[in-house]
Every structure is written in C-alpha cells, then in structure tokens.
Records
---
Amino acid sequence: MSATSFYRHCCRVAAVGTLLLGFACKREERRFTATYPSAPAYAAVTLDTLQPGVPSPELTVNSPAEGNAYDIAQGKLLFAQWNCTGCHSHGGGGMGPPLMDNEWIYGSSPENIVATIVEGRPNGMPSFRNRITANQLWQLAAYVRSLAGLEAKGPSPGRNDEMQYKVDEQRTPFRTPRASSSRNVPAKSERP
Amino acid sequence: MSAQPQPAERAVEPDPNSPASLHARLEQVWRNGPGLWGWLTSVNHKSIALRSIITAFTFFGIAGIEAALMRVQLARPENSFIGPDLYNQLFTTHGSAMMFLFAVPMVQSVALYFVPIMIGTRNVAFPRLNAFGYWTYLIGGVLLFSGLFTNTGPDQGWFSYVPLAGPGFSPGKRVDIWAQMITFTEIAAIVAAIEVIVTVFKQRAPGMSLNRVPPFVWAMVVMSFMVLVAMPYVATASAMLAMDRLIATQFFNYTEGGDALLWQHLFWFFGHPEVYIIFIPGLGMVSAIVATFSRRPVFGYTAVVLSLVAIGFLSFGLWVHHMFATPLPQTGESFFTAASAMIAIPTGVTIFCWIATIWSGRPRFDTPMLYVIGFIALFTIGGLSGLLLASVPVDLQITDTDFLPGHIHYVLLGGMVFPLFGALHYWFPKVTGRMMSERLGKVSFWLLFVGVNVTFFPQLLLGIAGMPRRVYTYLADTGWGGLNLTSSIGAGLIALGILLLVVNIARSLAAGPAAGADPWGGETLEWAISSPAPDYNFAYIPIVHGRSALWADTGDLDAVAGLREDRREVLQTTMLDAVPDSRHEHPDPTIVPLLTALAVGVGLIWGIFDPIGFDVGAVLMFIALAAWGWPQKTKPNSHEIVEVPNDRRR
Amino acid sequence: MTWAGSIFDTAGTPAARIARLAWFLIIVSGVTYLLVLVATGIAMRRARARRTQGELADTRPETANRLTRNVAIATIATTLILLGYVTATALTGKAIAWPLNAQRPLTIEVTGHQWWWQFRYRDSVPSNWLTTSNELHIPVGRPVRVILLSNDVIHSFWIPELHGKQDLIPGHRNTTWIQADRPGVWKAHCAEFCGHQHAKMLFDVVAESPAKFDQWYIRQLASALPPTDSATKRGHDVFVQRTCIMCHSINGTEAGSNVGPELTHIASRPSIAAGSLPNTRVNLARWILNPQLIKPGVRMPPNALSPADMNALLDYLETLK
C-alpha cells in the first residue's frame, strides 16, 4: 500500500480518536474539587409516597457519585475507616441491619441513604450531621448501594487487600431496583 | 461506426524465459490484492512490516507529545498546567506506549522487513501468523489510547506495582485496560519472535551457514529468543493482576497467601530482559551501518556475535537490581550487583569491535554513521550511569529519583532510537527507492544529540540532588527549578529534531533523489535487489560464498533456480550449513488473520468488563482458527523436491 | 561538597560512605567515558586521514592482530575496573550495615499511609510509646532502628542526608537504620509512586542533641491542655462537634480517631499537609477550607466553616504546642 493512502487512513483513524476526546467516561471521573449537593437538597426528601390529597412532586437529587468508580471506592474506604462495619459488618449486619440484602427500611435511593446517615435512625443508627461532608455522604451512599448490588458492575469495587469475608461488590449479583424502591416498600413478610 | 484500430504491427509474444517476464510472473504471484481488501488480506512481510513501522512511529509521536506535556508541567515548581490525575495517566501511558507499543514492535518490524531479504528468502516462515501479529498489536495500541482519550488511561505507572494497581487502590477500569494491552502486545511480540527464529533457521539462502549470517540478523535472532523466554512472564503477571481485579483471585493479597513482591519479581524478570530486547536490535543496526560506512566487514565477527548471545543470556540474571530497596537479603542483592557489572563486558566488547572497525576502515560520515557515533557517545553515558545504579549502596540513594529517567533515556535513546534513526536513513532508499536529505538529516541529528543531553543530563543531576521521580510537581524551596527548566528546554530541542526528521521523510517520499539498488555500497543481500524491493524479493535465490555476501563476489551473484513461478514457494535449507533441503508452499492473501485478531480482540476487550467476554472470545477464536487451518485441496506437485543446480558452491 | 538536600549533603555515617563510593564511581565513569570518546575520535581521525589519502580499508592480518590485541586489552581493562567496582561496592555494603554493637538504639516504627507518615517511637516503658505524624525527631549520635510498615500501598522512606531508601511494603516488615552525626533540619520525600499525592508526601526530619530530643519527647507525650478562654473553647467545640473529630485525634480530648494524622501538638510542627506547607495561620486556614485545592486527591475533604468558626478553630489549634 502506498504511503499516501496509508496517510489518509491514519487521518481517518485520528479523527475518530479525537471524537472520543469529548466522551469522558462517567465511571472514571475523579472530581477532586467538585462540590456535591449538600444539606438542603437531601433534607427535603420524604420517605413515603403515601400522602393525603395529591402527593407533592417527588423531589429527587441526582447523586453525582452514582456510577463513578472513584467515588464508590472512596465510599468503601470511609465505610471501613469510620467503623460502619462495627454494626453493619461488611454488609451482613449484626447489631445493625444488613446492607447487602434488598430490604430497605428507610429507602435505598442515594438521597434516602444520605438522609439516614445524616439524621440517624431510632434504635442505634447514630446521626452524623455536621460530621461528614456532603461529598463523603454521597460517596458512602453509593458504596452502600453497591453492597446490595444496586450499582453497575463496572464502577463497583473489586476485592480489598484484606482477608476475604464476602464476595466483592463487583460480583455481587446485580439487582434491578424495585420500581418504587426509592420510597418505602414494606418487606414481603410485612404485607397484609 | 468506427473501425477497430488495427495494431501497427503484431505484438511480439514475450519470451517466457527472459528475466523481464520472470519478474512479471513472480510479481503476479506475490503481489498483494488491489485496494482496501488487498491491504487487509496482505501476507507480504514487507507490507506488514512497513505498516507496523508506521504504526509504531505514530505511537512514538503520541507518547512524545505526552512527554512534552509532562516537561511543560515540570518546567516550574508548583505548576498548575496539569493536575496529578492527568499527569499520572500521562506518565503511565508514555512509558507503556514507548516500551510496549513503540520500542519492541519497532525493532521487530525492522527485523521482519529486512531479515528475510538479508538471508535471501521471499517471505517469513508463517505469513498469515505475521499478519495476525500486526492486527493484534494494532488493537492493543488502539485500546490503550482509547483509554487515555476517554479518561480511562492507566495511571499506576508503566510497571504497575501492586497494591497500588490492585483492586483496592485503583478504582475503575484503567488498570484493566493496561493489563489487556499487555496481553495484546505480548502476543504480537511472541508471534514476531517466532517468525524471525524460524525464518532465520530454516529459510536462509544456500551457502549462508550460521557463521556467515550478518550480525544484524544474529542480533534479531538473539532478541527473538529473549522475547520467547521473557514475554510470557509479563503476560502471566498481567493476567494475574487482571484476575485479581475482575474475579477476586488472591495472587497479590498478602492476607490470603499472596504477596505484593511477587508482582515485582514477575514483572522485572521480564522487565530487565525487555530493555535488552530493545537494545540488542540497536546493536544489530549499528553493526550493519558501521560495516557499510567503514567499507569493511565488522571487525571481530565472532566476538561480536558471541557477545550478543552473552548479553542475551546474562540479561536474565539481573532483574533484582530493580528491587534493591525491598526487603530482600543483602547477600542476594550483591549477587545481582556483580551480574549487572558482568553484562558490561560483552557490551564493551561489541563497542570496542566497532571502534576497531572504524579505525581500520575507510569511513564516510553520512547521517547513518553520525547516528552511530551519537549512539556511542550517548549509550556509554547511559551504561555508566547504569553502573552507578547497579551498586546496591549507591542505588539505595539514587533509585526512584530523577536519576533513573535520566539513565533509562540515555540507554534507550542512545542505544535504540539513535541506531534506529541511523537505520532509517540507511534503509530508507531500499524501502522507498528515494534518498533522504543529508542536510536535513545532519541538522536533525545535531538537534537530537544536543537535545537528549540537555534534557537528560540535568535529570541525572536532579536525582543526585534528591528529587524523586513520578512526581507531578515539586516545591519551590527545593531549588530544583533551574535544572527542571533546562531539561524542559531540551525536550523542546528533541521535539524540533523529530519534527525535522518527519519533514525530511515527507519531502524525501515526495521528491527525494532516486536511489539505485545499492546507493551505499553495502555488503548484505538487501542491496542486491532493486529499490524498492519487489514483492517477491529475489527472482533467483542467491548463493552466498562468504560473510559479506556482496563483497565476497564481484559481478552477478550465483543463484539457484527451480522454485515454482505460478504459486508462492520458498526454499528451505538446513539449519547449520544452509544446504537446500525442501520447498515450502506459502499461503495466498487471506482475511482470516484479521478475523482471528478481531476474535482475540473481542474476547480480551470484553473480558475487561465481564468474564463472559473470554468465553465469547474463545468461541470466536475457535471458529477463526478452524477457518485458518481448514484443509486445502492438495495442489499437484506441491511437495515434489527438485534438485537445484549445485555448481560452484564452496 | 555540600549541595543542600542532595546525597552528598551527608549528615550520618551510612550516607557518608555511600557518597564516597558514589564519588569514586562517578570519577571512574567519567574517566572511562573520556577514554571511549578519545578512542572513537582517534579512530575517526585516523580513518579520515586514510580516506583522504585514497587508501582502502585496512584488512591486513597484522592490523587485525594489532586490533585484536587492543580490543583484548580494553576488555581486560574493563573487567579489572568492574572487579574493582564490585569490591568497592561490597566493602561499602558491609560498612553501612546495621552496627551489631549499636549502643542504646532508638527504635521507630514508620507506617506509610496515602499520603502521610506516622511515626511510633518505642520505649522500654510501654506507656511511653509516642505516636506522632509527619515530623521525625532523632537524637544526634544515637543509632536509630527504623521499622517500615505500610497501611495501604508501597511507599519508600528516604532521608538522603542520612541513608539510602527502603520501601514500605504492605505485608512485609522491612527495616533500615539511620544515625545523625550532626544536628540539622531536612525535608524527606516519599520515594515510591503511591498515587495522586506521592509528589507531596513529605516529612520533616529534625536531628538534635540528646537533651533537646528528650525535652521534645516528653512534651510530645503530654496530652493537650483543656481550652481556657472563650475563643479557644469555641474552637475546641468546632473540632469535636464537626468533621475534624472523624479522622483526627488530640490526646486529652474526646477526639481519638486514627484515620488521619494525630494533631495533639500540631502547633509545634514546622509544616502541615505532610510536610508540604509551612505551618502558618493562613496556610492552615486554606488547608482546612479546601485541601483539594492544594493537594488534589488527598483524603481530607473540604470543610465549609464560617469565618467565626474558622478563626476560633485556628485559635484553638494554635494552643496545641
């Protein structure tokens, strides 16, 4: 093949490559200086869709940490270093409820989980209001969801360099969130 | 109604035995198909090698731009041109691309282009495998840079130490892309090595016994054996890393019986021979250039060849000198100091022999020879700085500092890139039929020579001054700003030199003076054929009577005849003395190697994201390999061995 | 030759012996390089002279014999130089080994974290073990045994003025030793790529007289005093009721987390942010407000504090001498 036609081929390839430049993979972003939605955003979340009259429009917040590998990995780090494992073990539960099942007393959406961490819950969940920054809250929430298999496989973390006590989040079976799992859905056993 | 034009005279039937029609028939049989399909199905070693060289040079350019960006960032303390995340991706892909996508593929492609011609055969031993190797390499390279351009570029360093590169500390798919790029490039490297070894051992021209093989070819054979032994280690290591990350194996998890140091041993057992894999072909190119431009065969042929083999063997016993700062026993480490010192002896022997060649020769200092002198001047600095690094106590001070990039670039640029650019000027006429510009060549040489020194000597000093490596910035009160700025300016000079080189190539391609078959008066067989070489290389397979194939005889070379002219056939000769032995039929152009490479590509790339990809890839590969090996209808007389003329063979 | 901060700015025996060997090797390398250049130059000149006189290449047997002899001499010379090199290396290696008759060695455990240093001094009395961060004090003249551990990835402990580097590898217990023979203050860098902020993972090294070292040690062991006036009380409240307490510890207060560097005597340190920022009020404020602007990727998050809270916190931290 002559040099000129090869050169033309190269130009075509380079053009395609440059197109990819615009497509920054969401999974791989590392946002060190971004500020994530803070208190007012998640404080307005309600837990239940059951409301008298016409339900108010649902307030949802886009969690920036969803689908982001770095944020979920940070969440995993925070989960261990702040001793969430003390009550929840590594998702299996103990004094606190398990986090790797699909039963969510207070909702499984990121803003629900953030609200749980911030407010605390009766019977033992401490309140971390003012103790954990907004960025870290969303990272923790994304990690907790990955424990239950609610995050996609790609951004979920692999195994830690520790003794292996459970299947890593990446290989936790992926579960499609139930249609209204962002609001309180009673566990099967509790339905009348 | 117009009459059919009558020919003025009857067309003369071409004489079937004249050389012109022999060339035409061979051309018909050996050429590539037309157009894009012909390009995709080619099994011609020159076509594949040339596109591989261009691909490797493209990756060199991209990695060079990355280096320029890094040098801009480091020109001033606390610079904010590039942040740590992008910087880590840049230096990782720079190192990975230069080592895996430029250096090894480039030297192997030069080998695949010239070794068959230099030993007097028409193609490499396994043409379809050769094509498969190129496509695999291309997919791996595109994978790495697609990663970089989508913010998924690996950022853990080109040596990828665990636990940083492991699943616990490198989130996302960046490291997985790196690990699979390794797999692609190692497959391609092993394929090329197999080609060189089998071709050189089985398809040499009659009379080219092993002690008449040109030193360049010897260097490529030694390099290929090293590739076969070393590459599997890094492929295994990267597979283990990918498995740790994807399916939670425990290879590098010390709490479950693995070890972080295991990675270092596996990687450097490959990594040290790797740099000699890159360096030995450079020695081969220097040999070729020195002989031609001194107008005499290389002095001390046996010493040079044995030294190349010795370097090849010894290089496998040095790897721990990359690990002196780890908790390995002191006595063991001292052994590796001695071994690292020992390898300087055969290296020195080759350089002394080349100096002796120049001494007793009648040299011309055209551009290729300038690059050889540049090689001696630069590589010696690299080698001596390597001796400083091989001594355990001194290494503990200067390893992992900027001294190391200084050392490695002196040996890589001096030991491989300079010989490569010399070989570029030397063989450009053979490949393209045109001469490169001497004036531009000399200017780019000097720019590069000065540039390399201005860039990397300050880095040797910076390492001594205490600056660590792989840092995206440094504090102002360290006082390292001046040397860093100097180094960055040198990088600009190198960029200018490369740019001029590219301009030289482009202008020479378009309008360079025509080169004949033998513009330099060379001694090896490639100068016996036309420039550019025909698709079939040799119309008649030459007989070789001495070490310098073209200088041993004057006038036309003796040759053998009898290979078929209606299908692709090569002559196979015995291993030691190159006595004609059998004829071997070669495949016609086919799309199957590309499909096989695509199957491998699908399997390995999908496997980055989901293990099911490997299953799918395996099925696709099975189909492709079945197509590859599908039995062909036996053509008549394809295995009949015909006596070839045996006259005047000494 | 004292090029400050370099491997030749030696302040201890191992570094001094290494520097001597390095000088020797540099000089030998320089001479060798000159010889190679001279030989090449002479070869070029001689051969050019031959060309201008129209002679062909010299392939006579007597020239070949002479050249063979010269190449052999050069090879033997190379071998001898390398033998000398290996010997010098071995001798220096022995000289810098941990002295088996070390008197009263001090033992310090160094734990590398992403991206800061934790130092734990061992003492014969367990309650006198001192844990501190990012600042290493050692007494002059006393050998110090350094035990190297890692909390996460591979780091490398390197004080160029005192000794070569050794890696901190998770799962391995590496050891090295240092000894300062003169007082000094130096900056040490992490020397193994460990992630985003490898470049700014530094620590301060202070070598001082044994008396001064003991004084420092006793002061560091003491817990922080409770805050006295209202400003520092408010600052203390900010510390223990906001984000700081999640990662940092101050002995004597409710703050006991060992996730990040301990801050009991933060005001006595010459630098903050793992040795990369001078310890001033302004820098501290900038760092607390948004560490990501100074060291992108570091584990400490931005903290939104009101100016009043920030000033109170700084007042409190300044009392932690």
---
Amino acid sequence: MRRTFWQQWSGILFAVPWLIQFVLFIVVPFAASFWLSLTDYRFRDFPNMIWFENYVDLASDEVFLKSIFNTLYYTVFHVPGVMVIAFFIAILLNQKVNGMPLFRTLFYLPSITAGVATIMLWLVILQPNGILNQALGLFGLPGPRWLTSTQWAMPSLILMSFWTVGTTMILYLAGLQGIPQHLYEAASIDGAGHIRKLWHVTVPMMTPTIFLTLVLGIIGSWQVFTQALILTGGGPANATLFVLLYLYRKAFLIFQMGYASAIAWVLFVIILIFTFIQFGIARRWVYYEYDESS
Amino acid sequence: MALLSNQAPSSSNVGQPVQSAVTIRGWRARILRPVWRLLIYALLIAGSAIYGFPFGWMVRSSFMTIDQFYEDPPPFFPLPPNWSSYTEVWETGPIVWWIANSTIVTVLGVVVLTFVSAVVAFGFARTEYPIRDALFLLVISTMMLPQHVTIIPKVIIFRDLGWLDTLLPLTVPMIGGSAFFIFILRQFFRTIPKELDDAAAIDGASPLRIMFTIIFPLSKPAIATVAVFSFIGNWNEFFEPFIYLNTPERMTFAVGLRFFQAGMWEQPQLHLQMAVALIAVAPIIVIFFFAQKHFIQGITLTGLKG
C-alpha cells in the first residue's frame, strides 16, 4: 500500500521547488496585497483597517483617472501598431532569400537589448535639435519638442515602442513556419494569387498567434513603466503618467502603501477583465484547426 | 481549407484561354520573380537600416563632447571622435560594481533558474500523479499575474528579512524556477518519444537518471534557448531591482544606468550616458550573435506557437 502511494505521488517532488516559491513569493504577497489595500498602511506605523476607503478615494482621484486614460491612449495605438508592423516584418523574414539569419538578428536586436540603456538612447534621438527633427527638417516639416510637449510626449513613447516589435515578430515567424505548405499548394491550384493566399490562408491560420499577441500586448501595455520613468518621468503635466508609474510614486516616493495597493488591485482587475473579454470574443474570429477535424 | 476550396476556383481562372495562362507563367518566372526578390531585398535592407540605426547613433553619440549636443545642428558625426567618454566613465561611477552585481544575478539566472526550471518541467512532462495537470495550469496562470500586484508586500517582507539593498530578493526566488521557462521546457520535453524512457525504466533507471541521461542531453537546444532568455532577462531586469536597491555600489547595471542618468549629475551628461549604455548592451549583443542561430530556431522549435 505504501509502495503504491509512493509510486502514485512521487512525481510531485519535481514540482516542490516551484511550489515553495509559489507560496512564499506569490500566494502570500498576493493575499497581503489585497489586505493592505483595505488599510492606510504607510510603511512605518501599524496598518489600520479602513475597508474600501482607498477604492472610494481612487474613484475621484483625478490623477489616477488621468493615468488610466493615458494607459488606454497608449494601448489603443501601441498594440495594433506593433501587431501590424511585426506581421509585416515576419512575412518579410519568412521569404527564402540569402542572408536571412543576419536580417532576423537585426530586427530582433532592439527587443533583446530593450531596457534602460536603449531607452536612454531615445533621449538623444528625440532631442529638439536631434537627428529625428533634422530628418523631418529635410522634408520641410517642423519637428515638435517631442518629450517635453504635452501633446507629443505620448506619441513619442508610442513611436518608440514600434522599434521593439521583436518578440511579437518572432511569435508570428514561428506561426508562419507552422502553416502546412500543402494549403498554399492547394490555393495555387485553385488559382489564388499572393494577396488571396495571404488573406485566405495565412491570416486564418495565424489567428491563434494573432490572438496570443493581442492578449499579451494588452497585458504588457498596462504595465508600461521603465520608458516613462526614464524619458519623461510621467510628465509633462502628467501627460505620460502610466498607472504603474503612479503606483510607484504613491508606494515608494510618498509611501502611501495602502493606497498604492488599491491601485495595484484595480489595475489587476482591469487586466483580468480585458483578458476575459478577449477570450470571450475569441471564438468568433480565432480559427483552431482541430475544431474541424474533431 | 473549406473556405479556400469553396471560393477560389470560381473567380480567377475562368474565361482565360489555357495558352495565355502558360505565357503568363513564363513571363512571371523570367521577369516578375527577380523583381519580387529585388523588392524583398530592398525592403529588408531598408527595414534593417531603420531598426539598426539607433545602435549606430548610440555609438556616434558616445564619441561626442557634451557641448556638441547643444550645437544647432549637432554634428552628424563628431570629428575627431572624442574617445575620452570611455575612460571617464570608469572613473566617475561605481560601474565596476554594477557589472559585478549584474554578473552575479545573471550567472545565477543562467545556471540556477534554468536548471530548476528544467527539473520542474521534467516532472510535468514525464511523471504522473493525480493533480499534475491542475498544478501545471496553476504554473501557467501565474504568468498572467502582473508583478506589480505583489511588489508592495514583497518589499515589506524583504525589509523585515533585512534583504533590501542586497541581491537576495533577486536571487533567492530563483530556487523555484520561472513559470515561462517551465512552460517552454515542458512543451519541448513532451516531444521526445516516451519509448526512450520506458526502455530505460525497464532497465531499472530511476526518473532522476532518465532525466539526467536521456531527457536533458536530448534537449540541449531548448535548454540553451532558455539559458539565453534567462541571460537577457536577468541582465535587463529593471523594475524589481530598481525598487529593492538604493546604495550605488549595490545596484545592478540597469538600476545603475538610471542612477547615472538621474542621480549623479547636475546637468545630463549625454555622451557619458551613451558610453555606459553601450557598455551595458554589449554583453547581450555578443551573446546573441553567438547564439542567434540556435536561439531563433530554438524558439520556433520549442513550440512557442500559442
């Protein structure tokens, strides 16, 4: 009996390291975070329960609402933009021509080096007298004061995000290479040209990957932090204050940790809702091959 | 499939004489295909130029003097190049410390995080117990959990443990592996034929032995891909170390860069910033150029298709 119990359960030992980490660094902080959001904790004194007061305050906190608006503004342009650009590049990188490994590396490089170092670089590129404005000047276009103008700061960040499309592009490339060649042959026999093949074979077969990148893209854009911190610090006049940056200010600059925890939870619920909605409407447009065969 | 065969034949070929179809095909092969290839090359080269340009600009900017940034217009390329940024940078900030700290975190990330993830992934791919699949679902679902939800309590916990301003909050959680890596490796391990395990098991090999002598050696490309991911991820990681580390000498490189940009100077020293930034991305570029062939194949191969 003991032996069979061992045989039945011994495999779980492999998961023990992950389980320990899960409890200590995910479950406990996750629960604590919700509890903190119901208190007035300020990092020093003992927290007092104030129940949902933080959430009520958030609803009328104009800076918070502004940060939600900013994040939505960014999402609406960043997510579709990255998807279209990455799709186009992936198709280009899926052609059979010489030197492809080099091209793939070049397009992927900005994404794997993405971080403080490459973000700082954009401070130089986007200077009022910087290279981008000089290039615009060649076409007779007046260059804006990108990062220091309330109107252009957010477009600057969106534009910059189109430089780091590598992860999405690699997922599309993997998806494109997974499309069975016989579908294209069948389409050729049926007389379809490049455009029709793209629209009637490639796109439907890619919808699961497109869906994945859409979900990940939206989750990611609700967590924008580093770019805004380095380039604008949330300014000018809170024009690029993202939700996570506001959370950081509240939690770690003025130590209103109870209030910041409430922000964290609202953000978490927003992400959850967005993800659920997408899974809900996915069946209307995502094409799963095995649906038909089974 | 169904979509295609229903629609396609009716529209394009109908009404065209067979002969003209043949000539069109010949014309296509001779003229259109080279033009098409040329177009693809043109787009690839233009695109690479756009995506590679900022790196070139980083190099160029590190050769400037600070005054040249404020000339109107600044020089396209400073002549003669000012090499002194690269010597100055080592004297001004605790960069050596940043490199050392990031190296510690990154090496542990490559070795420990990859190894533990592989072991956990092996359990999910190759052993059986009642709640295995539910547990795996739990692992995947933690990937969706944004890290900001847990950051505030983690800071409090690490403060009470006396771990703030040390590398421990970054390295100790590695003992549990990473959900993303566990997922990738588990997917790959499942593609290895089960018969190999069974044969070894009949010969009396324990699961641990099967893991070390069969599964891991056969999974070198996938494990290498994960190791590169881990290198890049840990070297670039900013949010959590930025919250935990305060003393300049204890910062990782990414946090140090931020300190260099915002905490060290009265006036921004753009040329020095670009020089440090270049030093910071150099290891990643080097690693990636060595690993890129395996890396991009590895991603395709590990079934990251969603």
